[in-house]
Design a protein that fits this description.
This protein has 395 residues and is of the alpha+beta class. The protein folds into three domains: 107 residues, Orthogonal Bundle (Butyryl-Coa Dehydrogenase, subunit A, domain 1); 98 residues, Butyryl-CoA Dehydrogenase, subunit A, domain 2 (Beta Barrel); 159 residues, Butyryl-CoA Dehydrogenase, subunit A, domain 3. 50% of the residues lie in helices and 13% in strands. The strands form two sheets. Strands 1, 2, 3, 4, 7, 8 and 9 form a seven-stranded mixed beta sheet that branches. Strands 5-6 form a two-stranded antiparallel ribbon.
Length: 395
């Protein structure tokens, strides 16, 4: 049993994440400066087996409960949001790909505690031409979070026949995830952003790259799913959402913890009383605590409901919609808490030397992710009313 396996056996993912917090705290400014995780952090993630949390047990992974995964991403993000973002992105990408791949191919790619996977968002400007034994892939993708720390990268694309027509499989357009070694891609160092800088979410491209069939899973097709666990029935979109919600909750918790610490020891220059004795600040902190705790409780409840239903084979649209609501609502509530803490901290918050500035930038960047967008709340509302459209890909 290697060090990572011993660590996994001794503590839960949440406990291991908390043990990493001092290191992540210390490395956070350097992660932000480098626009990627430091070697010390990457080594620590591998040593604590944090990149195989959701990988099937049949492939050497931990296949933990989704609730434990949410708690782990929250605990990591409390110390450094970019690391938490990478841990969630890589775990969900790896697990859902492996669950739909031939066993030997998955074992070869996701072998060992440093196994990870990064890719960018799907779009309509790529080509994956069906050929004998696989596909010819061409395109450019952005937002490959964590790609500087993985040896494999991937891309999503609709499949075309050699004559250019759409390839239909299982009754609809065939959209696949294509996995290939990172050194096969042209990497564009363009991750110059407000926050979450340490994710190193570069743009990359490939041209006419051959991808064998065994490296091109349809992650969402039940016909190709080889793993029976509840995680893989929930599917990637909601797995990403749950973990990213955990990241934003961890960020907001750290902002609130820091705001409380500041209030205990500071006297505002524009107030006649110390912050700790200011009734408005006292009320605000109580409300922020309630908002954050309520959002976290809703997430955990919805995650457990979805996981239990998936395990029982009864996961339906209502339960999926509830998890979608909890994740989108939670990300937005966490954002509101982070903003309030930043505003409440006054000029202290704008200093590079203070603990607010970098985390505020991270919170604002996380809030812009598609998983937090208000139209998703409208989608759930339509479902509750009974006027929903064709929105299955968001749940």
């Amino acid at each position: 049993m290697d060090a990572a396996d011993r660590s996994a056996a001794l503590a839960s993912a949440d406990e291991r994440a908390r043990l990493l917090q001092p290191l992540l705290d210390a490395q956070g400014p350097e992660i932000d400066r480098r626009h990627e995780l430091t070697p010390q952090v990457v080594d620590a993630l591998a040593a604590n087996d944090m990149l195989r949390l959701l990988l099937p047990r049949s492939l050497g992974g931990q296949e933990i409960h989704l609730l434990e995964h949410c708690k782990a991403t929250e605990a990591i993000a409390w110390a450094d949001a970019s690391t938490g973002w990478f841990v969630n992105q890589s775990n969900v990408s790896s697990a859902t790909s492996a669950a739909a791949m031939p066993r030997d191919a998955a074992l070869a790619i996701f072998d060992g505690p440093r196994a990870g996977l990064a890719w960018g968002a799907i779009h309509g400007n790529s080509r994956a031409i069906r050929v004998d034994g696989g596909y010819r892939l061409t395109g450019k993708w952005s937002f490959a979070s964590g790609s500087r720390h993985t040896t494999w990268i991937g891309a999503h694309s609709a499949v075309q026949n050699p004559d250019g027509t759409s390839h239909i499989r299982y009754g609809h357009e065939d959209i696949r995830s294509f996995l290939f070694p990172r050194d096969k891609a042209t990497i564009i160092d363009d991750w110059q952003v407000l926050g979450l800088r340490g994710t190193g979410s570069d743009t990359y491209s490939v041209t006419d790259l051959f991808i064998p069939d065994e490296h091109a899973p349809h992650r969402e097709a039940s016909e190709e799913r080889r793993e029976p666990g509840p995680l893989y029935t929930i599917r990637s979109t909601l797995l990403y959402a749950a973990g990213f919600c955990g990241v934003t909750l961890g960020l907001a918790r750290r902002m609130l913890d820091t705001y409380v610490t500041l209030a205990r020891g500071r006297h505002s220059r524009v107030s006649p009383s110390a912050m700790a004795n200011n009734n408005a600040i006292q009320r605000e902190i109580a409300v922020l605590e309630a908002k954050l705790s309520a959002a976290r409780a809703f997430l955990h409840e919805a995650v457990c409901q979805a996981y239990d239903a998936a395990a029982a084979g009864t996961l339906d649209v209502d339960t999926r919609m509830r998890l979608r609501l909890a994740t989108t609502y939670g990300m937005n509530e966490a954002t509101d808490v982070s903003i309030a803490c930043y505003r409440g901290a006054g000029t202290q918050a704008i200093m590079d030397s203070a603990p607010f500035e970098r985390r505020f930038r991270d919170a604002m960047s996380a809030s812009q992710h598609a998983q937090a967008m208000p139209p998703l709340l409208a989608m759930v509302g339509r479902h509750i009313i009974g006027t929903e459209g064709n929105e299955a890909r968001f749940i």
